[in-house]
Amino acid sequence: MILSAKRPFKILTLALVVASSGQLVSSALAQELQVSSPNNRVKALITPSALGALTYSVSFNGKTAIEPSSLGITVDDQNLGLNATLGKATTRDFKETYPVTGVHTTATNSYREAIFPVTSGATKWQLEVRAFDDGVAIRYHVPLQGQHKINGETTTWKLPMGSVVWHQADTSNYERPFLEQVVEHMTPDAVIGAPLTAKLPGGLGYAFVSEANTVKYSDMALRAAGNQTVSAIFDKDRDGWNNDGEILSPWRVTMLTPDLNGLVNSDLLRNLCPPPTPELARATWIKPGRGNWHWMVTGRPRLEAQNQWVDWTQKLGFEYYLIDDGWRDWKSGAKGQWENIKDVVDYATTHNVKIWAWVNSNEVFRPADRLAYFQKAKDVGLVGLKIDFPQRPNTTWVQWYDDTLRDAAKYQLMIDFHGAVKPSGRERTWPNEMTREAIFGRESGKLPATHDTALPFTRYVQGHADFTPTDWRSGRLNGSSWTHELAQAIVYTSPFLCYGGSPDNYLQHPGVDILKSIPSTWDETIVLPDSEVSRMAAFARRKGNEWFIGVINGDEDRPLRIKLDFLGKGSYRADTMADLPANNAGWNRTQKTVSSKDTLTFDMRGNGGYVARLTPTAG
Description:
Blueprint: E1 9-14, E2 17-18, E3 24-26, E4 30-36, E5 42-48, E6 54-60, E7 63-70, E8 73-75, E9 78-79, E10 84-86, E11 90-99, E12 106-120, E13 123-132, E14 135-142, E15 147-153, E16 156-158, E17 164-168, E18 179-182, E19 191-200, E20 205-212, E21 221-226, E22 229-233, E23 241-244, E24 247-248, E25 251-257, H1 260-265, H2 268-271, H3 278-281, E26 289-293, H4 295-298, H5 306-316, E27 320-323, H6 337-349, E28 354-360, H7 367-380, E29 384-388, H8 395-410, E30 414-417, E31 433-436, H9 449-452, H10 459-462, H11 474-477, H12 482-491, E32 496-498, H13 503-508, H14 512-517, E33 524-527, E34 536-543, E35 546-553, E36 558-563, E37 572-580, E38 583-594, E39 599-604, E40 609-616
Helix pairs in contact: 7-8
């Protein structure tokens, strides 16, 4: 088998497999097939063993990032990764750019692809491999007809010894703190929710293990398999599931970056998902924005208090107000829930505020019920729905997310999923998904600082998340600080940025002017060099010509120096907020003029942080 010399694929034919003693073990033909990224720094090696078991490995900058690991999907009790013979690959190079919202404004999708025909016994299928400059993605395509059972996969990732990994244990709602371990010390058979972030040994950089484009398939979790290995497991479909027609698995993803800046700025998961329809891509009703939310302040909403919440939202300059669970019980005279919420919508419209509303997923599970509910929501003027409590992420419910977003788009409704499965990049396909939970967030109270500082490099790499940040109320700080809380709104990405604190408290707070100025999406994001997973998350983010610095500190006091060499030409007015050593409900706020030649220096307390707003000076 020969591929064009112009293509970045190498084929090495090994006629003999020899043991260390030199004795001939097998004369069976084995093949190694290498797929390289456009910059040749990422290389995937696909290798059938002498017994026909598919494996792969990945190198990054010339060093092993994923050691030989298994490939395979089991269909009708047949592991298609065994007794596998590879045919000649179909190859292509691809490159595109497209607009995105959140971390930055434009994504570049560039990869080299090889599609290998595979024969496993009587079954013919395809192994699809894409090599990007920031990772490798592999999926299984089995072109069957009729109904067949997917029993699971034998996909694994073997990390180098000494890799430090971060993961969390919830495989339903993804609402547990991220913990740190050395990979060889992971508890055998422990099941964790993807993603898994790893710091590779020897200064090689970072690996991120997950999946992308999950449709018509069960949600993938990971199992600690020993020997530095995690394996794909389908925790909510352990007995398998039935599939009608062809099988196209989600992409099994290994993201690879030299630093945390590359990890945060990667578009790899979205790059593996289809683009939206042209109509949806041009939709003017999809509008990121900031919102107030009452649940963490008052619990269930009282009808008579809603105009006050709208007034607070207007005063803060926020675009949205979210009404959570309880509005279904509103009654006033002959008016029921829909008439009453329309009154709130009408009042909010006169104050330039748009309304989101909460709904339980069981009310919109069946297609007919969903369409009827969405019609009512559109008729009363709602612009978005927060859909809560989806059931476990088995195949049925994973597909429900996609169907719900498709139907919501028909009624020009934006969506925020809560109690949800992790995203998989499909916000590219359905840009009306503005955020989703699937995170251990502020609603759960004050969280460990090690968790707060892990999130930007773990869960947020998977996609946007509704953390509901920034609660300045003294009874809710619990050891956190004003700067730590405000920095969350800068560092955590959510195009629908829903604040969890009290708007009345915000409006009386000395930092309200900074809070009001923080956008919900960014033109540029830079992870500053001193950032460390679970220790400190330091971001510089630009919107227009204005920069914001947000630093979330871990549980240890530390000094920090931030070089401002990312600034443009000219001078900037720096409005800075630094921790007070002995008071978490306060800060040292200063204003000064700076330029790209300057360095900001400050001390952070454990559980503290730092915030700065840098605005170009006139002239």
